[in-house]
Write a structure and sequence with these properties.
The structure is a single chain. This protein is mostly beta strands. It folds into 5 domains: 4-149, Sandwich (Immunoglobulin-like), CATH 2.60.40; 161-243, Immunoglobulin-like; 277-345, Immunoglobulin-like; 366-456, Immunoglobulins (Immunoglobulin-like), CATH 2.60.40.10; 470-557, Immunoglobulins (Immunoglobulin-like), CATH 2.60.40. It is built from 2 helices and 42 strands. Strands 1, 4, 5, 7, 8 and 9 form a 6-stranded antiparallel β-sheet that branches. Strand 19 (259-264) and strand 20 (269-273) form a beta hairpin.
Length: 561
């Protein structure tokens, strides 16, 4: 910091000019302004009072520290800045230093002074406003700071690690909070002699990335408390020794796709296939000529897509589709199954119909129906079809379709129903035509039931599920896939921490206790996200859920672009 020292003569000149400006009449102000312009052009730092000056700051305080003085005050209305003066204990004639602090809303300043610290200098503060010519109109009074010694800050406790996770390329560590203002993280490789400080954090979690596979690293952490501009450090934690994983991947390729059928139209083909277990999606290519060099990439679709339609084709012509399943490995790289080809032929132009028949009628199994005060779960016998339409009637004469479900479904839960109310239900199987239309089978016989009253909807609790934990994850610059251990339950809730609202938000509901993976996309690059998960079970009468304990938080940072 460059400090400005005023001589006694300069101080006397400043004070005499200040007194002259305050006493000047309206007729004399123009002459005073010209004098100011002259002084400003010479680069003088003196203050001239030729306009309305603000009041002096109030509620001032100063804390003496080993490396300077920490000054604080209340902001003054109408101020453009502040003048702080340090006056020698023997008086201004023995020396005075000063600093301008700009900004009327500024309320603190740290003076890292260089002169002797064993003398009790006096500190004063005045507010100033700025005139039209840049002159500073200083408050006529100054407030003296009350100087106190810095309070003693206790040394933080020793940090204790609570857990860690690792992969081939990173280490994540967690530790117990020790009432600190922050933590310093240091680490070194197995061949390094000294620790290197990676940085500081206010969290109780750290991730060290860009490491080498199958390598040993040493980590230690110590807490600190702020003491003005200084930090008071605690003792280092016990040394944590971690060896990264080998960069191997045991992800197996998915099985080959099995085609179910091809539905043809005059200018379209729709291909159907059976689901492949343990896959994340399917890659599709199309060939219009039969030449092995004419395959064109069409799309990557998710694992819930089991058909694909091509349009704008020539009538009575042959086309080929090639498809393979894929699964992401631990590095978020797809591992592919074998290619499977299927030929399709469009219909002759002017054909009156497609060779698609209506599915068989569905029978609702009334003995397996589950009824609560606001839900009814309907079961039926499965038939060979592309899907089912779900219909409901709450008046006895007005039917409404509420959902389509896949052809391998055999149950559906109708939600948000009225308590103690009679409803009618029916199910219809259908097959798809190449143009997107459907051919329906016969509707099932109507099933009718009355929901339970609210009074009879008391929950019959079941034992809460066991706690699940995240086991691994993979990531790209814009996506994260989480994996967890399965437990006996009906599903899982996944939550993500929102740093803006400082709250956990539920972002996904997993229906099915046997599902143990979920991918989140459209994320920001080089950004840390925090997740947790808990399992749930439905009560025996379906009126509520019983939850497990939350998992430990999982911190995942997306890759840089």
């Amino acid at each position: 910091m460059m400090m400005k020292k005023l001589s006694a003569a300069a101080l006397a000149l400043m004070l005499s000019l200040s007194t002259l400006a305050v006493a000047a009449s309206a007729d004399e102000k123009e002459e005073s302004t010209e004098a100011i312009k002259t002084e400003i052009s010479l680069g003088a730092d003196f203050v001239y009072n030729t306009g309305t000056a603000p009041a002096a700051p109030t509620t001032v305080s100063a804390v003496k520290r080993s490396n300077g003085m920490e000054l604080k005050w209340n902001a003054v209305s109408g101020a453009n800045g502040y003048l702080i003066r340090a006056v020698h204990p023997s008086g201004e004639s023995m020396g005075m230093y000063y600093e301008y602090v700009t900004g009327g809303n500024t309320t603190s300043f740290f003076w890292d002074y260089m002169w002797s610290t064993n003398k009790d200098w006096d500190f004063f503060i005045s507010a100033y406003s700025e005139g039209s010519y840049g002159q500073r109109n200083l408050s006529t009074t100054a407030s003296k700071f009350t100087v106190t010694e810095a309070q003693t800050v206790t040394t933080p406790e020793k940090v204790e690690f609570t857990g860690y996770s690792k992969s081939a390329r990173y280490i994540e560590l967690d530790w117990r909070a020790q009432g600190c203002d922050g933590y310093e993280v240091s680490f070194k490789g197995s061949n390094a002699v000294e620790y290197a400080v990676l940085g500081t954090t206010t969290e109780t979690h750290a991730k060290i990335s860009q490491l080498q596979p199958n390598s040993t690293y040493y980590v230690r952490i110590r807490g600190y408390k702020n003491n003005g501009s200084e930090k008071i450090y605690g003792a280092y934690s016990e040394e944590k020794i971690i060896t990264t994983d080998s960069e191997t991947d045991n992800t197996t390729a998915p099985a080959a796709v099995n085609f179910k059928k091809v539905v043809s139209g005059e200018d379209s083909l729709r291909y159907y296939w059976d689901p492949v277990s343990n896959c994340d999606g399917y890659q599709i290519y199309f060939n219009k000529t039969g030449d092995k060099n004419d395959w064109e990439f069409v799309a990557n679709v998710n694992n819930s897509t089991l058909d694909y339609r091509f349009t704008g084709l020539d009538s009575q012509s042959n086309y080929w589709i090639s498809i393979r399943a894929y699964k992401y490995n631990n590095s978020n790289v797809p591992v592919y199954g074998e290619w499977v080809n299927k030929q399709g032929t469009t219909d002759k132009k002017g054909s009156s119909s497609e060779s698609v028949s209506a599915p068989m009628a569905v029978n609702i199994n009334t003995t397996n129906a589950a009824v609560t005060y606001d839900t009814v779960t309907v079961h039926w016998n499965g038939v060979k079809c592309d899907g089912y339409e779900m219909w409901i009637n709450e008046t006895g004469y007005n039917w409404k379709q509420v959902a389509n479900v896949s052809g391998d479904s055999t149950s559906y839960r109708f939600n948000k129903l009225k308590p103690n109310h009679q409803y009618w239900f029916t199910v219809c199987a259908y097959n798809k035509l190449s143009n997107g239309d459907v051919i329906r089978g016969k509707f099932s016989d109507n099933y009718t039931t009355t929901t339970k009253s609210s009074a009879s909807a008391a929950q019959t609790s079941v034992q809460k599920p066991a706690r699940t934990e995240f086991t691994s994850f993979s990531r790209t610059s814009n996506a994260i896939r989480l994996n967890w251990s399965p437990v006996s339950c009906d599903g899982y809730f996944i939550y993500r921490y929102n740093y803006n609202t400082k709250a956990w938000e539920r972002i996904s509901v997993i229906r099915g206790g046997n599902i143990t993976t979920k991918r989140f996309a459209n994320l920001n690059a080089d950004t840390t996200y925090v997740y947790k998960i808990r399992a749930y079970k439905f009560n025996t009468n379906g009126t509520g859920k019983v939850y497990s304990e939350y998992s430990s938080p999982k911190y995942v940072t997306t890759k840089k672009k």
